[in-house]
Amino acid sequence: MVFSSLIFLFLYLPIVLAVYYICPRKWRNLLLFVVNLVFYGWGEPVYVILMVISTIVDYTCGYFIDKYRESNHKKAKRFLIASMVINLSMLGFFKYSGMVLRTINLLPFANIPIPKLPDLPIGISFYTFQTMSYSIDVYRREAPVQKNVITFGTYVSLFPQLIAGPIVRYKDVAYQLDHRRETVDDFTKGVCIFCVGLAKKVLIANQMGALWEAMQATGQNNGWLGAWIGIIAYSFQIYFDFSGYSDMACGLGNMLGLEFLKNFNYPYISKSITEFWRRWHISLGTWFREYVYIPLGGNRKGFGRQIVNLLVVWFLTGLWHGASYNFILWGLYFGLLLVIEKLVLKKWLDKAPAAVQHIYALFFILIGWVIFYFAEDQGGMPALINYLGSMFSFGGPVIGNNALTLTVSYLPMLIIAGVASTPLGVKLYNKISSKAFTPALQTVYCIGVMALSTALLVAGSFNPFIYFRF
């Protein structure tokens, strides 16, 4: 994995960018389509076929949806349904069949063999939602049909955000696919954003991940404060890991003349759970709102129906993250919190001091990350319950010796992570952005990040992106 990361940074990406800009503009989508498949096949050669099938299915369905939308609405709707069924069936088979069969086998009379599938296709949850958005957008007349299968394949397989988002809706990039114009300013911006993401991942997320793993090694001996520090470390790890990938994807998109929507907006400064989910994984929240919540009726059919719609969306949000019951519990946990806020808490929170609002939001967010982490491969429900118990065992030791040593050792990184999770850095940059020395400062920053990240990657401290598993 370390070797692959260095190959990507110093061989694959420079070659792709060089060939891309040398290539005549009319061939650039074809080039991107090829390099996208090479990139995906690098990690999962066998599943390239699955992506090609998904591309052909949705291209074909989109073509016929557009063809019959005016003359035969029912037939157009059948092709939309066909797109949904085929996409969700592929996702369900590869991601959830094992979970479903294990659940059925809990019945005393059931003993269904569970097929041994290869590893989950990387990024299948992301690109499945993207291809579905195309069929829906064309059906709704919110985007034009794409008549060039290569251009459509380029959209489905875009390597910058293919594996872990952001989820790019077709209508957001439909015009860019055929009419983008690459500029020096966009390329420079892309390099800077890419380096911000790289720094988040390698310099912060991986260090917080190391602290979290070290805290887990001593488990019950950490004391209740040690348990809280451990899950704080994990909350920083998953934020900087995921937002780092999203930034890198957006930066790479800018280098290729594409603009992707922002996926994170400093979620840990939120004052409520509602605000948190407006700031965290924005592309997923937008997808569920546009394609599930609003079609179900949203808030237009009474408050009772709105609550049901919210719970359905959050059940699906949890399930989207993985074939483990903790993810469903995690989704419903946040769904219930959002309902409670709408019913009772919001009017009280709005009157509370800002500090109280922040503490409230962070408390429930951290509890949520405990639920999220302990999937079946991490110990499941017993481990989840034990960890929550250790966080509230106030009668025991405050903090164990090992947890204290680790906290002191990682304290500078914890402080850096805390500051970096706020808009402070951006505000400082905006104040100096018009200064003459800013370009030189950007250059020094990018070189420094690349040098430090490379050193850490060579040292073997790299961990794969958390959201690769989804």
Overall description:
It is a single chain. By secondary structure, this protein is an all-alpha fold. It folds into 2 domains: 146 residues, no CATH class; 284 residues, no CATH class. Helix content is 72%, strand content 0%. The protein contains 18 helices and no strands. Helix 4 packs antiparallel against helix 5 and helix 12 packs across helix 13. The longest helix has 35 residues. The radius of gyration is 23 Å and the shape is globular. The two termini are 18 Å apart.
Would you summarize the structure shown here?
The protein has 470 residues and is an all-alpha fold.
Write the layout of secondary structure elements.
Blueprint: H1 2-22, H2 28-43, H3 48-68, H4 73-104, H5 124-139, H6 149-157, H7 170-179, H8 184-218, H9 223-255, H10 273-279, H11 282-293, H12 303-321, H13 325-351, H14 354-373, H15 380-391, H16 401-420, H17 424-432, H18 438-458
